[in-house]
Amino acid sequence: QVQLVESGGGLVQPGGSLRLSCAASRSIGRIVVMGWYRQAPGKERELVARISGGGSTNYADSVKGRFTISGDNAKNMVYLQMNSLKTEDTAVYYCSATANTGRYWGQGTQVTVSS
């Protein structure tokens, strides 16, 4: 059973916007934190942004002021609005959820920023 399903990746020009969505299965239990990570070719996976069940957020310095994470607890959804995209934002973006039953990862969605 797939616990996290991402959508919304794609190809966009520099300066453009994309919105990623992630749906978490109810089977994973009570979610404590949801977040987005990314991994570019040849680089380690890094945190982009995360949000707690109470709404507290954290962002990587590289995306502050450009990306916004939000969540819908009722729907077990998390979103990442990405504005002013740069070529260096190109990566596979992964949704993550930490729940009372463990840590879960989505399959990843490709974001490519290129002219």
Keyword list:
115 residues; four-stranded antiparallel beta sheet; seven-stranded mixed beta sheet; 0% helix; mainly beta; 11 strands
Chart the SSEs and their pairings.
Blueprint: E1 4-7, E2 10-12, E3 18-24, E4 31-39, E5 46-52, E6 57-59, E7 67-72, E8 77-82, E9 91-99, E10 102-105, E11 109-113
The average pLDDT is 95
Per DSSP, the total helix count is 0
Write down how many β-strands occur, each being a DSSP E stretch of 2 or more residues: 11
- Head-to-tail CA distance between termini: 37 Å
**What's the shape?**
globular
User: Largest sheet at a glance?
Assistant: 7 strands, mixed
Q: Helical residue percent?
A: under 10%
From N to C, what is the helix and strand string? EEEEEEEEEEE
Helical/strand content category = mainly beta
* Backbone CA Rg: 13 Å
Plain-language structure description:
The chain has strands spanning 4-7, 10-12, 18-24, 31-39, 46-52, 57-59, 67-72, 77-82, 91-99, 102-105, 109-113. With 115 residues, it is mostly beta strands. β5 (46-52) and β6 form a beta hairpin. It is globular. The model has no long low-confidence stretch (mean pLDDT 95).
Tell me briefly what this model is.
This protein is mostly beta strands and 115 residues long.
